[in-house]
Structure formats: C-alpha cells, structure tokens
Amino acid sequence: MNAGPNGLSPAAMSAAERLAEVARLLAAGLVRLNARQAERDGCAVATDED
Fold it and tell me: At residue 8, what are phi and psi to the nearest 5 degrees?
C-alpha cells in the first residue's frame, strides 16, 4: 500500500521517518489553517519571501 502522493510505503520508512512525515503534514495543515483564519480576519499574512 502506498502512502499519499509521494508513493512511499510506510513499511519502507523508519519510525522516525514516519513521525517526521506526520509532523510535516500537521505543520503544513496548521500553516494553511492560520492563513485562512488571518484572511477571514483581514490580517496580512507574512511569508518567507518578505
């Protein structure tokens, strides 16, 4: 069974790699959620490009 769009099987990943992948996904979700909330509140959203 493949995991998501990257095609890596979770069985081929170490526990640390799986944990890092979950943490990356959660962080990306939080960034998107915060950006959406800021957009609704009319706040400017800072980016790394600033």
Answer: -80, 135
Q: DSSP secondary-structure letter at 3?
A: B
Q: What distance in Å separates the CA atoms of residue 6 and residue 44, rounded to the nearest whole number?
A: 32
Residue with tokens 């526990």: 15
* pTM for the model: 0.61
DSSP letter string, 18-48: HHHHHHHHHHHHHHHHHHHHHHHHT-----T
pLDDT in tens, the chain (50 residues): 444 566 678 888 999 999 998 999 999 999 999 999 888 888 765 666 54
